[in-house]
Sequence to fold (218 residues):
Amino acid sequence: MHTVVCPLCGNRRARRGCPALGKQICAICCGTKRLVEIDCPPECPWLASAREHPPAARVRQQQRDVATLVHLVRDFSERQSRLFFLISTFLVGYQPSELHPLIDDDVAEGMAALAATFETASRGLIYDHRPASLPAERMIAELKPLLLDAGRGAGSAFERDAAVVLRRVEESVRGVRGNEPDNRRAFLDLLGRVIKEPSGADSSQGDAAHAPVRLIVP
Fold:
């Protein structure tokens, strides 16, 4: 019987029918080039199977990510949890300037400055604490109005809650970053893997502040 060689690698035996290429390819090329070099159609059975049964390493990563965030909000009140969701979805969707990309250190610095601002406000004083880095300053310039809108009319109790959540995010950024010292976006990457941005009606500022927390659980 004639052995069909994978046309992509030219080495391994072709055993899988690829609907995108209309050819038989090997399992390794199917797995590594899927949706990267191969434009897989949604009806591809190999794509569907991979989505339904993700690799064990990715499942373990998701479990660790979710455990980290669950620990982060372990003692939060309902309002504090919603504020955390609002901040997290903001960070996931935030698009910094190409000249000033955002890294974890900027997030921690920005959260610390904004927490200090809310702590000062809860004592009846108005003073904007500013971070040293420009990316952090630009980030909180967009985040602060969302938080103020979410806490409109709630007074000092909201300001104290916001400060608690911001401090916890700062602490968590530094903790996750410390566990992955070579990854300058370790915390931001974690959020991107776990937090699902609201869509449709819940994506507005007001709805996001009251939407349920969405975690991608394996």
